[in-house]
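Z., the sequence and structure:
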Amino acid sequence: MPGIEALKSEFQACNTQVLGVSVDSRFSHDNWAKSLGGVSFPLLQDFHPKGDVAKKYGAYLEDKGITDRATVIIDKQGVVRYSVAVTPAGERNPKELLAECQKVDKA
């Protein structure tokens, strides 16, 4: 997430709203954000009904009761334009995500 924070103005320039969504509580979100030195984007709870948003994007792991790590880019019309699972050992590449957001913005 620090990489996304570093590119915050570039994400904003391509009309992108970065959000974090998880089934964790607000308290977990607060602790996670503090562990990163803070985040400037909203962290949303997909808490009740648990995983409802993640289920709509195929990212909820029913057998484990958690959300898979994934990145989803949705255009202004609500159409998924990009989606990729992120393995626990993997990392998101902020510059690649920015390039995807720029493509969506220009479409």
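The helical segments are 2-6, 8-13, 26-35, 52-56, 94-106. Residues 2-106 form a domain with the Glutaredoxin fold (CATH 3.40.30.10).

Let me know what you think.
H.
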